[in-house]
Specification:
mainly alpha
Length: about 375
């Protein structure tokens, strides 16, 4: 059974990656012909020199929804000679979750659409937050996206869950400040979510996250420095939304496989870098009496560049840190109390080092350095 599902996860990943690789050049041409471009002269906050297509988010979502649609149609039709018998056992489960799945898909579409509108017409912060709230409300109220906080209070769970989705959409939006940084970090996170969901035998959630990981990796090929296309707010909203949904859907704690409750913090550590970066940037901007939604060069990636790393090296270091934290969380999932406690403490110390770097190199004034990124003025 596990070998069967492992193949399904692999096919989901490869399908998303290949289709994104094929579709992204098409959307790049569409952006160029429709003048859906990120032009550096439009704001002094941009650092790239040439106008760059901004439909990367639309390319990722299109590949994602096509793969998901084809997979669902194929499974429901029963036209899979080798897998049909095994999949028939789960047809009932697919139909059972289909209403929630539809709502989650609508939320993903809404996230992409909101980002596209913002990319084109630069929405105000209030309007964008309002749109994010409606998307989160949809996913939580009718999509079954609930954060487990071990509290028997439906209202509090609802509030925390809505906040979680909005937080992730904005965190990835903020984190998208250098070529390949955000999409690479989320692809790594999705890979770990796939592993955890598979270990927990949450087959559909694992397929969901594997597909998203594949879509991210496919786009990563074009977004790696020097990027030929940006994912824009449509992409950062889509990836942030998916990260929030998958993290909430994966069951990280269960008495049958864990001897402690430490696994409940696993999603926070897997997504720690964008979350910590957002917290530090908001704090620094607040200390400097600047609106937190106005972009600057105080992100962790910018600080690595100031330390002497190239932009490619800075992005690589962040990705290596994401891998390090994620790998450290694997034993926490099934370890006993002592193992989990040591590894959680180790991850916290690692994040403390990052925090010290943030404050040590923060400075009170924005530097004149302009990184080659698709960072927008509101980030």
């Amino acid at each position: 059974m596990m070998e069967f599902w492992d193949q399904i996860y692999l096919f989901s990943f490869l399908g998303g990656a290949v289709l994104t690789l094929l579709l992204t050049p098409l959307f790049q041409k569409i952006a160029e012909k429709s003048d859906f471009m990120d032009r550096p002269q439009s704001t002094n906050h941009k650092g790239h020199r040439q106008p760059t297509p901004l439909l990367g988010g639309a390319a990722m979502f299109t590949a994602w929804i096509l793969c998901l649609g084809v997979a669902l149609l194929t499974v429901c039709s029963g036209k899979l000679p080798y897998y049909s018998d095994l999949l028939n056992e789960h047809i009932g489960g697919i139909f059972q979750i289909s209403p929630e799945l539809l709502v989650i898909i609508l939320g993903a579409f809404g996230a992409v659409l909101l980002g596209l509108i913002d990319d084109k017409w630069a929405l105000s912060a209030g309007v964008k937050f309002g749109g994010q709230f409606l998307i989160a409300l949809l996913a939580v109220t009718w999509g079954g996206v609930h954060v487990n906080i071990f509290v028997e209070n439906d209202i509090l769970v609802w509030i925390v869950s809505v906040f979680w989705i909005m937080l992730m959409m904005n965190s990835i939006n903020f984190f998208d400040n250098m070529d390949g940084l955000a999409v690479g970090t989320i692809s790594i996170a999705m890979a770990f979510f796939t592993i955890f969901a598979a270990l927990n035998q949450q087959y559909f959630v694992a397929v969901f996250s594997a597909l998203t990981c594949g879509v991210g990796c496919g786009f990563w090929f074009y977004n790696f420095n020097p990027a030929t296309i940006f994912m824009g707010d449509s992409g950062s909203h889509f990836l942030g939304y998916m990260a929030a949904v998958v993290a909430a859907k994966v069951t990280f704690f269960g008495i049958n496989f864990s001897l402690s409750r430490f696994p409940i913090v696993i999603p926070l550590f897997i997504l720690a870098l964008p979350l910590f970066d957002t917290a530090m940037v908001v704090l620094i901007r607040t200390m400097n009496r600047k609106p937190f939604w106005i972009g600057d060069h105080n992100h962790i990636s910018h600080r690595f560049v100031r330390m002497g790393l190239s932009r490619k090296q800075a992005v690589m270091v962040v990705h290596l840190m994401a891998l390090t934290i994620g790998l450290g969380m694997l034993p926490v999932f099934w370890g006993d109390f002592r193992t989990a406690a040591v590894l959680v403490a180790q991850a916290l110390l690692f994040l403390l080092v990052i925090t010290i770097l943030q404050f040590t190199l923060s400075g009170r004034q924005e530097t004149r350095e302009t990184p080659n990124s698709d960072e927008k003025q509101h980030r």
